[in-house]
Amino acid sequence: MISVSRLTRMRPALAAGTAVLAGFLAGASMAQAQPAAIDYSDVQADPALWRVSDADSEVYIFGTFHILPDTLDWQTDDLMAAVDSADTIYLEADVHSPEAQAQMQALIPQYGLNPQGVTLSSMLDEETRELLAEVAPSVGAAPAALDPLRPWLAQLMLSVAKIQQMGFNPAAGTEMQLIARVNGTDTEFGYFETAAEQIGFLAGIPEEVQVRGLAETLHELEDLPQEVDDMVRAWATGDVEALDQYVNGDMREDEPEVYEAVIVQRNRNWIPQIEAILDGEGTVFIAVGAGHLPGDEGVIELLRDQGYEVVRQ
């Protein structure tokens, strides 16, 4: 769920890009997780939660983080009360079920692997090839194992492996924790997108942008822990403005076409679906990547533009 989603560096994939990131995380990893470099047990978490309602329906909207440290306790009483009250939980896509995992693995040859005769190293200049050979082993990846991958997937794998070295755990990610909490109850699940659509968003990034993003990641991988730490703390403490800047700021400025396609257009696609939910009845909890919610083109403001009163809890 990748961001992703910056998307060209895959760092916002953790909070905004696509929930399919969480599915990849659940299915595989390249590096053994190390003890957490940062202890989050002292963070007084209060992540942002919004509510919109009408006469016969109540909808909570929450931003997710796809991979988190075990030491961060983000599940506040008010947040969990909202989860427990829901008849249905809506996520971006089904990426955790066995069926979804099988589908995603089947899509990798089509979307994640290079055509026959094309290698990752053949797309890179000499400096970037040398950097890949130096950096990949530091996160448990053999450069030869990355060579069949398209740049977007190689970049994602390297970034995730680095974050796992920080002690971050896919099982601690928001979606997996929500699923575990309601498992065995009558709560139903709904989805805004499919795993295939989400993989398509990433694979559809122009190749030259993918290559540039991979090169940037290789140059800046050592800085990734601090950037992730900033993002996590902004999200956990409910600092929506800071989170928007960390997740979306660079992408808005440097890659506006990517931002439009992967963030804004998807936000717009979700608004009619949320309106349909409000036309129904009962209590619904919506959990999508945190980077999709803030900003003038985020889900919250788009709903307000349609005349809904969306109140932060």
Provide key terms for this protein.
313 residues, alpha/beta, six-stranded mixed β-sheet, two-stranded antiparallel sheet, disordered N terminus
Written account of the structure:
- The protein is an alpha/beta fold and 313 residues long.
- It has a domain at 7-30 and 46-105 and 169-192 and 218-312.
- The chain contains 14 helices and eight strands.
- The protein has helices spanning 20-27, 77-85, 98-111, 120-123, 126-135, 143-146, 151-165, 174-182, 195-203, 207-220, 224-236, 240-254, 256-279, 299-305, and strands at residues 49-53, 57-64, 68-69, 88-91, 168-169, 188-191, 282-289, 311-312.
- The strands form two sheets. The protein has a six-stranded mixed β-sheet with strand order 6-4-7-2-1-8, sandwiched between helices.
- Helix 12 (240-254) packs across helix 13.
- The chain is globular, with a radius of gyration of 19 Å.
- The two termini are 24 Å apart.
Describe how the helices and strands are arranged.
Blueprint: H1 20-27, E1 49-53, E2 57-64, E3 68-69, H2 77-85, E4 88-91, H3 98-111, H4 120-123, H5 126-135, H6 143-146, H7 151-165, E5 168-169, H8 174-182, E6 188-191, H9 195-203, H10 207-220, H11 224-236, H12 240-254, H13 256-279, E7 282-289, H14 299-305, E8 311-312
Parallel strand pairs: 2-7, 4-6, 4-7
Antiparallel strand pairs: 1-2, 1-8, 3-5
Helix pairs in contact: 3-9, 7-10, 11-12, 12-13
